[in-house]
Design a protein that fits this description.
Layout (H helix, E strand, L loop, with lengths): L1 H24 L18 E7 L12 E8 L6 H21 L1 H14 L5 E7 L5 E7 L24 H8 L7 H6 L4 E3 L9 H8 L9 E3 L12 H13 L3 H11 L23
Length: about 280
């Protein structure tokens, strides 16, 4: 009985420390403290306008977004309360139980290619708010930043030995458990796009898929992942958002477990050539 009490006290102490740390770190985890950092399309409905004279974006197309209205999403009780509660519980225990894995991977990454263990990217969150997404670094320090792997010339040249293993087993995504804990992401939801993936953002708006928190995994991930073309991926993301429920989240969660054993849908250098499974 005393042992159980001690364990509960330790868990409570860890939870308190992590909660305080999350409160402290949350403001700096989003890009909105300065006017120039905030996404001008935050809270807006958007449309993609092609323009061949503009610079190619992260989706490999030329053009820009225009606002065509305001977001009017109203979160239901499941999304607002229960889903967030599940996110907090799962992410807390995930961070605690996986701490040995975090330590091992951190050491391997540093030994393999000296430099930071983690890297951050500006990603699109709920209502198109920019936030800082965290990943284990799986590529060399010389790799161009904020450029999708499929747009790199010979991407394999940038991936480290540890990174090859980490990426093939989706372990590079583990630090996003922290992003879930502080509230920028959810366990289940559309994968957060890069800040300059304008075509993906516009396609997702057709299905209200930008109205919810992005996820560590989701419906599109268990139906093709990197193999999916952007319109197909956006439609699958929209299907999830419009059918969000405990049952749907459980289906996505358990459907994603297998990727840690090796995921053949991770396509290095691929832009997506699979039409995908039907929603």
């Amino acid at each position: 009985m005393k042992v159980l009490l001690i364990i509960l006290i330790v868990i409570a102490a860890i939870a308190l420390v992590m909660a305080l740390l999350a409160i402290i770190k949350k403001p700096s985890s989003v890009y909105r403290n300065k006017p120039e950092e905030k996404n001008p399309m935050e809270g807006k409905r958007v449309k993609f306008i092609e323009n061949d004279s503009e610079k190619e974006n992260a989706d490999g197309v030329r053009g820009h977004l225009i606002a065509i209205g305001d977001t009017d999403h109203k979160a239901g009780i499941y999304e607002k309360v229960f889903k967030r509660l599940f996110d907090i519980i799962l992410s807390f225990f995930g961070l605690v139980l996986l701490s040995p894995v975090f330590l091992f991977l951190s050491l391997w990454i540093v030994i393999d290619d000296p430099g930071p263990v983690l890297f951050t990217q500006k990603r699109i969150g709920r209502d198109k708010q920019f936030f800082k997404l965290h990943k284990f670094r799986s590529m060399k320090m010389s790799t161009p930043h904020d450029k999708p792997t499929h747009m790199l010339e010979n991407p394999d040249q940038y991936i480290t030995k540890s990174g090859k293993f980490i990426r093939s087993h989706s372990l590079d995504e583990l630090p996003q458990i922290w992003d879930i804990f502080i509230g920028n992401m959810s366990v289940i939801g559309p994968r957060p796009g890069l800040w300059n993936q304008d075509l993906l953002t516009a396609e997702r708006d057709k299905y209200n898929a930008n109205d919810v928190k992005p996820g560590l995994t989701g419906w599109a991930q268990i139906n093709g992942r990197d193999e999916l073309e952007i319109p197909v991926k956006a439609e699958l993301d929209g299907y999830y958002c419009n059918h969000m429920s405990l049952g749907m989240d459980l289906k996505c969660f358990f459907g994603s477990v297998g990727v840690f054993g090796g995921d053949e849908s991770v396509v290095e250098g691929g832009t997506g050539n699979n039409k995908g499974k039907g929603a």
